[in-house]
Amino acid sequence: MRSLFILLTVLLFVLILVLPFLGILAGAGAEGFAAIYEALMRPESLHALQVSFIIVLIVTLCNGVLGILFSLQMVRGPWLAGWLRPLLNAIVDLPFAVSPVIGGLMIILLFGPNTLLGAFFENVGFKIVFALPGMVMATIFVTFPLMIRELVPVLTELGQTAEEASATLGAGPIRTFFRVTWPSIRWAVYYGLALTAARAIGEFGAVLVVSGNIVKQTQTATTLVYQDSIDQNLVAANSVALLLGLISIVILLFLEWMKKRKEDQLHAH
Amino acid sequence: MHIEVRDLVKTFGDVAAVNKASFQIQNGHLVGLLGPSGGGKTSILRMLAGLEQPTAGEIYFDGKLVNPIPVQDRGIGFVFQHYALFKHMTVFENVAYGLKVKKQKRQAINERVYELLQLIGLEGTENKYPHQLSGGQRQRVAFARALAPKPRLLLLDEPFAAIDAKVRKELRLWLRNLINQFGTTTIFVTHDQDEAMEVADDLIIVQKGRVEQQGAPWDIYNHPASAFVASFIGESNKLKAPVALQGFPELSAYRAGGEWQEGTQVFIRPEAIELRATHHPQTAEAGEPGKITHVHFRGDAWYVEVELAGGMTLFTYQPLHQEALQAGDSVSVFIQQLFVFAPSDIRILENRSRKGQRRLYVYPTTEKRSGSK
């Protein structure tokens, strides 16, 4: 009985994780390494990877700062009376529950060219939908909870007495944050940033809706894979997918290492 | 630093943690805020520190209103119950923190930190991290950290609560000496009356967010201003129902049938009870007849329970050098003194049958004595 379960687990693991990845590997390598290199060096590939990179960079930075500020308010905000805190807590998780496509759609409905806000921004020369700002917004929407969900439990466990001690010793809020709070939440923040980056690289649905998937303009690596596979350009699709997969694996290994650091730090009290 | 607190109020939601507390503290005094858990002591301390904003009322340091001054500018030192050391900093960095904030020169910081480490007996630990120290050592580092910037007011929140009993005793004597040496005005919160009595020059008894009484430990023990203080400080026998006790004719005035008058409480300290075996030749004085129901060895004395003829049970301590009593012995119970707290007055009644020692204290009711003015 026990060996049956083990067998089932291994089978499932092979079926949904190992095989697809091997499939990508085989698909990409079907015409040799030169083909992979060529597929990745296409101008549209390079552009798409660059767009993805820019989005990941901006989103990770935004999420880092916003996530820390938001988490601090979530845990400690004195103005969050009674029912407000649980409500906010639920809203933070909304992007987990809602399909990214709907997230993207909401941005189009809000900032599309035919809407009041969209028209306003377009007039001042700031295009949101079918442009980078909209894609960044869509990705922030999707990744927003990751940082907060990492930080809130750490901040809750940390408590405030060390910060209070810092204040009684004459330190202002900024010094207290950087000298006392930051060293204790540092690894949780890094972990949240890595999670955000990993999720942002792989984001597809929301970005596809918002970007319009315009080649060499708003196409990201994931939407390029989609485009290539529709165009039956399987070697190219698999090559880009392979690169994305490898990046994800690196980030995952990095996360594993970081988790260990984070736990070590938590338990060194 | 002279401290004055006027009508301090702190409410959390609908609950008033502190309810019109007023008191004054003289410069250089070591004062214990003593009271049952949840009585508002810690809230008062945190408001003095500026960690909590009062709902109403004023706090003055040396006559200057400090309500609008944030924590970091009040010039206080605060020691937290669970030390709150910076766990990612070494002992040296912890103690030096307040000095670095003040932008002192490195040389001055080094000197001050080593001076303090020597004072707390932790030389050689400067490069250790807090988790490498024992509880008592951590607490001493916390003291050193709070004292380093030379605060004019030191606030301690249950400083010994998390330390085991034996170390706690050593540490509080050590702290007392340390504070006397510095002469810093100090307020500490505790729910442990032994600790408060042993360490403090002055006690402020806090209950339900109010100041019940302020005074020297001796005064508070011997002249409690309210029934609460009498029962909270030291041990007391409470007389639940009136009994006629020889030598206390005044007691009858507080009776209403088989009960005490509304709001009246009567207490007897265990040390005000003398027990004598009935066959003893010295039993000349009048006492209540009683029977020993329970004897228990406490190390420094016998704990004795005695039942009076009326059915009332009292407890007391019998010194070891006196004749050992046993359960079932008949004794004469002589009560020297009792406290009466009535709505109309508060009295300490002395036994009138012992001639020459007849004393009677009458002083005004709680309201006038408990205030600070």
From TrEMBL, chain A:
Keyword annotations of the record: Membrane, Sulfate transport, Transmembrane, Transmembrane helix, Transport
Gene3D superfamilies recorded? MetI-like
Query: Which InterPro entries does the record associate with it?
Result: MetI-like, MetI-like_sf, Sulph_transpt2
The highest taxon in the source lineage is: Bacteria
* Pfam families registered for this protein in UniProt: BPD_transp_1 (PF00528)
Q: How does it sit in the membrane?
A: Multi-pass membrane protein
SUPFAM superfamilies xref list: MetI-like
Task: Name residues in a coiled coil.
Answer: none
Q: Which GO terms describe its cellular component?
A: plasma membrane
Q: Does the keyword field hold Transmembrane?
A: yes
UniProt keyword annotation of Cell wall biogenesis/degradation present: no
ABC transmembrane type-1 domain location: 49-255
* Any GO molecular function: ABC-type sulfate transporter activity
Query: Subcellular location, in the record's words?
Result: Membrane
The membrane-spanning stretches of this chain are: 50-75, 87-112, 124-148, 188-215, 235-255
UniProt xrefs under NCBIfam families: 3a0106s02
Subunit composition and interactions: The complex is composed of two ATP-binding proteins (CysA), two transmembrane proteins (CysT and CysW) and a solute-binding protein (CysP).
Reported function? Part of the ABC transporter complex CysAWTP (TC 3.A.1.6.1) involved in sulfate/thiosulfate import. Probably responsible for the translocation of the substrate across the membrane.
Q: What is this protein called?
A: Sulfate transport system permease protein
The species is: Brevibacillus fulvus
UniProtKB/TrEMBL annotation, chain B:
Q: Domain named ABC transporter: which ranges?
A: 3-233
- Which reaction(s) does its UniProt entry say it catalyses? a quaternary ammonium(out) + ATP + H2O = a quaternary ammonium(in) + ADP + phosphate + H(+)
Tell me which Gene3D superfamilies the record gives: P-loop containing nucleotide triphosphate hydrolases
Q: GO: which molecular function terms?
A: ABC-type quaternary ammonium compound transporting activity; ABC-type sulfate transporter activity; ATP binding; ATP hydrolysis activity
Cite the InterPro entries for this sequence. AAA+_ATPase (IPR003593), ABC_SmlMolc_Importer (IPR050093), ABC_transporter-like_ATP-bd (IPR003439), ABC_transporter-like_CS (IPR017871), Mo/tungstate-bd_C_term_dom (IPR008995), P-loop_NTPase (IPR027417), Sulph_transpt1 (IPR005666), Transp-assoc_OB_typ2 (IPR013611)
Query: EC number(s) in its UniProt entry?
Result: 7.6.2.9
| Key words, A-Z | ATP-binding, Nucleotide-binding, Sulfate transport, Translocase, Transport
Identify the domain of life.
Bacteria
For this UniProt entry, what's an example GO CC term?
A: ATP-binding cassette (ABC) transporter complex
Q: How does it assemble?
A: The complex is composed of two ATP-binding proteins (OpuCA), two transmembrane proteins (OpuCB and OpuCD) and a solute-binding protein (OpuCC).
PANTHER family with a match to the protein in the record: SPERMIDINE/PUTRESCINE IMPORT ATP-BINDING PROTEIN POTA, SPERMIDINE_PUTRESCINE IMPORT ATP-BINDING PROTEIN POTA
Q: State the name under which the record lists this protein.
A: Carnitine transport ATP-binding protein OpuCA
Q: What organism is the protein native to?
A: Brevibacillus fulvus
